[in-house]
Every structure is written in C-alpha cells, then in structure tokens.
Automatic annotation (TrEMBL):
Entries under InterPro entries matching the protein: Cholesterol_7-desaturase, Rieske_2Fe-2S, Rieske_2Fe-2S_sf, VanA_C_cat
Protein's recorded name: Aromatic ring-hydroxylating dioxygenase subunit alpha
GO terms for MF: dioxygenase activity
Keyword Iron appears in the UniProt entry: yes
C-alpha cells in the first residue's frame, strides 16, 4: 500500500512538473502523454481564412484559431469566458473575436475588451491564449507553459517551398495512441504487411544514431520477388532484376524520431535526397488515445517534371493504400491494449526498444498512469 501511494504520487508529480528520467520505461507507454512544451500543428493554414475563426483541438483542449483580415493568426481557448460557448461560433471584428451569444469581444491576448450591454470597463473575464505560429502551411500552437515557447524552435518541415520537390499533404485521424504511429514508421520489419502493395521486399538494418531526444534508424531494401510497382519505381528508380537473385537496392531509408516529430528520408545511391516525409502526431482527446496526423510528403522532381505530375494521382493512391494497411494494424494494436487493460507487447527489435524508451523519457505520464509491475 505504502509503495503504491508513493508511486502514485510520483506519477502525479511527473504529470505536473513534466518529464524526467525518473519515469523512463516505468509506465505503460500508452499512458504517457505528449509533452505539451513543444509546437504542435493543429490546422492547415489554408483552412483558416482571413476574417474567419476555425475550431481545432489539442488533447481535449478546444482551441479557436482566429485570422483577422490583417495581422497574424492567433489561438484562444475555444470557450467564451461568459457561458463557455465556443468562440469558434463567433465573428471576427477587427483584431477581435466576438462571441456569438452576448457579444463579448476578446483580443488576441485573450483579454475581454467589450461586454456590449454593460458600458463599463473591466467586467468581462479573459480566456486562455496560446502561443501560435505558422510554418510550412501549418498553424502551430504551444499547449504547454507559454513562457517556454520562445525558447523552443519550430520544426524543420520536409521540402515545403523547395521548387525541386513536389509536396503532398495528408492528415488521417487514427483511433490509437500516438506512440503506435512512431513505432509503426520506425519499424521497417513489417514489410510483410505491405506485400500486396510492394511485392516481396525485405529491410536490411544499416545502423542507427541515438541521443536524449532523438533516434534514427537506417535501412536499405532488397526485393525478393513480385513486381516493383510503378509509383515505387518513380521514387526509387527502376530496380534491375537478375534472375533468381536477391537484388541489392542502394537507396537508404532513414527514419528519425526527433521528439515529438518523425521524418522518413530516402537518399539515392549518389546520396541525393529523393523523398522527404515529415509527420506530427497530435493527440485529440484528453486520454490521448486518438491521434490527428499532419503529414507532408515531398518527392524530388525528375528531370522531366511533368512525369511526376502525371504519376501524382497514382503515387497518392499507392501511399494511401499502404497507409490504410498501417492504420488498420495500429488501431488493432490499440484495441488489444484496451481489451487487455494495458500493454502486453513483446518487443525484440532493439531499435523499437530504444524508440519506446525515448518516447517514455520525453513524454509525461498521465494522471491515470501507474508504474508497471516488475518481473
Ligand atoms: S456566452 Fe459568450 S458572450 Fe455570453
Ligand atoms: Fe507500414
């Protein structure tokens, strides 16, 4: 009893004070929340039009994104301080957002500047404001301690804006904890799942790098059988087949989790970057068992750029199909976690073990997290 009480207290403190080495690998990974002291994308820039307000969400917190006719976009708690009606139902007036119900108006700092029916200063209450930035066609907020926002950089995002690349957006919503997604992308040993899309290829582990807040695994692929799909050929180049022999494929796929983001880069045999994927996994509900993905996939334009334009729909379909296979699997993993009441996975691949430790170390145990039983 004593031990439990102390451990419970530790979890409570961890969730208040943030991360710390004390909780590494001690909690069920699916009860470790994202560290809020990072920039998280919560909407695409083009969805928040000038003079409009847009409803978004981070881990159960409703957030109204407001873009005045002029000036940068800003983020407020999406609950009016008066009766908690969503501010996203309101109207943008000048630099303020006016609640749809009684017309209280809030400025970009969240201060209530007008209560229209009481001609008096200082009667309204403020709402929470979030640090807010735009980059790469995404709107980011900083859900944690606003005092830290300035010192935390926005991430580098794929090749958005680089004319040598063509970039597509994707944004699936998944019924699973964000950690399943990190594991799925990092672990290239699951190509068997994608055999119908990619034929029979196997991943060869080429090495890794690790640090306190990142890890990278590198792979190359060998084709054992089946035909190379057209879309894959466009990214990797045509693989010459030699009858009956396993072909070395000289591209290197590097997958990296730099907490809390993930990237996958492909370099061709000359070391040139040919594909660059950037993904953020943003928790939706307060239990963080649902995830909104924001992804940008950049593909290097070939010499004849129109070929890529022509192949673009096929490429979209190819990546969509692969992603749908992954989606089904990660959601099934989450389902098993719910049914079994916790994590019963057996991990044998050192890369994934290290990734799990990284996610545990950098995240924050939630209020329900209890230390794992040892032994
Ligand atoms: S609920 Fe917003 S002004 Fe009354
Ligand atoms: Fe996959």
């Amino acid at each position: 009893m004593q031990v439990e009480a102390v451990a419970g207290k530790a979890a409570e403190q961890a969730s208040v004070s943030g991360k710390g080495p004390a909780h590494e690998a001690e909690y069920d990974l699916r009860q470790i929340d994202c560290d809020p002291n990072f920039w998280y994308p919560i909407a695409w820039s083009h969805k928040v039009r000038a003079g409009k307000v847009f409803p978004a969400r981070y881990a159960g917190h409703p957030i109204a994104l407001v873009r005045p006719e002029s000036g940068p976009v800003y983020a407020l708690e999406d609950r009016c301080a008066h009766r908690q009606v969503p501010l996203s139902k309101g109207v943008v007036e000048g630099d303020c957002i006016k609640c749809c119900y009684h017309g209280w108006a809030f400025d970009r700092g969240g201060k209530c500047v007008t209560v229209p029916y009481l001609n008096k200063e200082g009667v309204g209450r403020p709402v929470r404001s979030y640090p807010c930035r735009e980059k790469g066609g995404l709107i980011f907020v900083f859900p944690g301690d606003p005092a830290l926002a300035e010192s935390v950089p926005l991430p580098e995002i794929a090749q958005v804006g680089n004319p040598e690349f063509k970039t597509r957006r994707f944004f699936p919503r998944l019924k699973c904890h964000y950690t399943f997604m990190h594991e799925n992308l990092m672990d290239m040993n699951h190509q068997f799942l994608h055999r119908r899309q990619m034929g029979s290829i196997t991943a060869r582990f080429m090495g890794q790098d690790k640090g306190e807040n990142f890890m990278e695994a590198r792979y190359s692929f060998a084709r054992k059988g089946g035909n190379q799909p057209l879309a894959e050929a466009l990214i990797f180049g045509k693989h010459r087949e030699i009858e009956g022999k396993e072909q070395p494929v000289e591209e290197i796929v590097s997958i990296r989790t730099t907490y809390p983001y993930q990237t996958l880069k492909i370099h061709d045999k000359d070391g040139d970057l040919v594909m660059d994927l950037w993904v953020a996994y943003v928790p939706l509900g307060s239990d963080q068992l649902g995830t909104q993905t924001f992804g940008l996939l950049s593909v290097k334009k070939p010499k004849w750029a129109f070929l890529l334009d022509l192949a673009w729909p096929a490429l979209g379909l190819f990546t969509h199909r692969i992603f749908e296979e992954d989606r089904e699997i990660v959601e099934l993993e989450q389902k098993a976690w719910r049914e079994l009441g916790g994590d019963h996975t057996i991990e044998v691949f050192p890369v994934v073990k290290a990734l799990r430790a990284l996610l545990a170390r950098n995240g924050v145990p939630n209020a329900r997290a209890r230390p794992l039983e040892k032994g």
